[in-house]
Amino acid sequence: MARKKIALIGAGNIGGTLAHLAALKSLGDIVLFDVVEGVPQGKALDLTQCAPVEGFDAKIIGTNDYADIAGADVIIVTAGVARKPGMSRDDLLGINLKVMKSVGEGIKANAPDAFVICITNPLDAMVWALREFSGLPAEKVVGMAGVLDSSRFSAFLAEEFQVSIKDVTSFVLGGHGDTMVPVIEYSTVSGIPVPDLIKMGRSTQEKIDAIIKRTRGGGGEIVALLKTGSAFYAPATSAISMAESYLYDQKRVLPAAVNLTGQYGVDNLYVGVPVVIGAGGVEQIVEIALSDEAKANLDVSVEAVKELLVACKAIDPSLN
Ligand SMILES: NC(=O)c1ccc[n+]([C@@H]2O[C@H](COP(=O)([O-])OP(=O)(O)OC[C@H]3O[C@@H](n4cnc5c(N)ncnc54)[C@H](O)[C@@H]3O)[C@@H](O)[C@H]2O)c1
Ligand SMILES: O=C(O)C[C@H](O)C(=O)O
């Protein structure tokens, strides 16, 4: 069987880490695309020289030509600009919207059958715009944020409860911004929901509230420390888990930004919710019952995403 083909649009911090992970996991041959000449080629050469040590057969090329992504099975998009301290993700909207236009057109012309995972920020608006510009079916275009936000939430919960990360599950829903919604009712240690753990005296509401706040600001915390860019290891790992679920038809239930068509009372908007990812792309959108508080928080998050789409349409009238 021929190897799968993974195209990475954007060969920066996340793009390079994605390529490394995809090679180590032998997901397929890898094409690193970037507009900057030399960078994708240099990273591809460096990664190729990992092969003798690691023993992977994947072919890795760097390119500035969209023709090289032809036939890609999975495309992961990180093209654009990352924020610096003092900026919000939304400050990136104008510049990254233009990038999504060129990326969407490149995908449409060269790899219209791919499963596309967008990472570029502000995530919910950029994945919506990418789908519009690419014209691909909505079930084949998803945004990565929920896996990362939930992973951060789980890591903080494992630390608080002093338990193995393997026994912690959590869900963060909504837009990938300060209004994201960590849902404690569906966050568990070995199946025991966090509210029950509080009742059992294993933590306090105040401590969990602080963890929720830290999760919401998780990206900003890293931006403030790095100073020159944003998180890239955990974002790359998160996107690779989504790619694997598609490539291996794992049908994992993962939080992802998908186009809602009435679910959660939301229509024609990309927002983070639990979905099943398998060989068909987004195969199911899972509607979980939410407490009144979580639903109200999700509504606030949805409104924030709607405002971003208004801004996108004002910048690029072709999106109306
Ligand atoms: N969704 C998430 O959870 C999440 C997490 C982390 C970062 N991000 C976002 O991902 C994006 C990438 O982050 P990064 O750390 O890799 O940034 P980076 O600056 O290291 O890499 C971005 C790359 O995109 C390239 N690029 C710019 N315009 C392009 C175009 N038109 N076509 C192709 N490539 C182009 C740049 O040359 C650069 O190499 C940022 O927008 C960041 O905010 C999102
Ligand atoms: O915070 C950022 O700007 C990058 C990303 O969205 C993150 O959450 O790490």
UniProtKB/TrEMBL annotation:
Its EC number is 1.1.1.37. GO terms for molecular function: L-lactate dehydrogenase (NAD+) activity; L-malate dehydrogenase (NAD+) activity. GO terms for biological process: lactate metabolic process; tricarboxylic acid cycle. Coiled coil: none annotated. The active site is at H176 (proton acceptor). Residues 148-307 form the Lactate/malate dehydrogenase C-terminal domain. NAD(+) binds at G10, A11, G12, N13, I14, G15, D34, N96, I119, T120, N121. Substrate binds at R83, R89, N121, R152. The keyword RNA-binding does not apply. InterPro entries: L-lactate/malate_DH, Lactate/malate_DH_C, Lactate/malate_DH_N, Lactate_DH/Glyco_Ohase_4_C, Malate_DH_type3, NAD(P)-bd_dom_sf. It catalyses: (S)-malate + NAD(+) = oxaloacetate + NADH + H(+). Pfam families: Ldh_1_C, Ldh_1_N. Keywords: NAD, Oxidoreductase, Tricarboxylic acid cycle. CDD domains: LDH-like_MDH. Residues 5-143 form the Lactate/malate dehydrogenase N-terminal domain. Belongs to the LDH/MDH superfamily. MDH type 3 family. Catalyzes the reversible oxidation of malate to oxaloacetate. This is Malate dehydrogenase. The gene is mdh.
